[in-house]
TrEMBL record:
InterPro entries: DUF2188. It comes from Leeuwenhoekiella aestuarii. Residues 17-48 have a biased composition (Basic and acidic residues). This is DUF2188 family protein. Residues 1-77 are annotated as: Disordered.
């Protein structure tokens, strides 16, 4: 089963977007990254998807899994 992903990415014209994987358009646009992360985290939990935030330069930063993680951590703490 392929994992679902939701990305928080910087918008070229300013602000931040929340997008599902392979989407051309954003699900929602935000002025700040914090607003985008808060909304996207809730959506990701309800979808059971992986939340993948990006930095301003586009690089991935600290992904967070809210679904069936194919590689869960071995420790239970």
């Amino acid at each position: 089963m392929a994992r679902k992903e939701r990305h928080v990415t910087p918008n070229k014209t300013g602000g931040w977007d929340s997008k599902r994987e392979n989407a051309e358009r954003a699900s929602k646009h935000f002025e700040t990254k914090k607003e985008a992360m808060d909304w996207s985290r809730q959506k990701s939990k309800s979808e059971g998807s992986e939340l993948i935030p990006h930095k301003m330069n586009g690089r991935i930063q600290n992904p967070d899994s809210h679904g069936n993680d194919p590689n869960p951590p071995k420790d239970k703490n």
